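re: that chain from earlier
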Amino acid sequence: MQIVKTLLVFALLALAVWGLRQQVVSDKVAESLPIRYVRTEGVFQYLSKDEIKAALMPLVTASIFDADMQLIHETVAKLAWVKNASVERVWPDTIDIKVHERKAFVRWGQKGLLTEYGELFTPSNVDQFQSLLLVEGPKQQEAKTLEIMKGVNTALEDQALELAEFSVNDREAWKIKLKTGLEILLGRTGQLEKLQRFLDTFPVLGQEKVAAMQVVDLRYPNGYAVSWKPDSEPINWGKPQVQE
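^ sequence. v structure.
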């Protein structure tokens, strides 16, 4: 019985030594397989590979075995210009990253951009997009505000007018500004109907009168008020000429 116990002890010691040796060998193998390459694929216009490299540098100093792929993916996905990304471990020494870049559709306030689908992102180079249409609205209402703006823009395009700014305040009142500088106040109710009613008067007013307008207030049930540009020529309010 004593002999059996002795043999069992020796067997356990042998297993422990073997396990320790295997761990040492495994650690040495891991150390011998560092990450040598981080490949980044994608068509980039505003996202730079240097930005991705800087974000990932602290995460790719381990071996290919120990690299935290989930953390690498989350880090890339958090970059402002990244729409989506995939991360793959490629043996023996490479991390392969595929990235799709977001596309800016309009500006959101002074610091943000929106995609065509109303997704908000705030890159550091937002100042490069001053030529985009400016949209402003309540927080967490980006997609809804964008859809409203698209409807307004469609109505304006029928009159060959270009929208420069569109805003919805906290009281849900709309205001728009055209590229000509004309501001239009639309209020809180029946905004699209009021806008269309105003646009329907263009043939009666004529281009000269429309061009002289500075602000149009449509917050009236049956009409609208106009503020004229201070440098506009006196307007002859003779009998309107209706275009056939």
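Residues 20-30, 240-244 have pLDDT under 50 and may be disordered.
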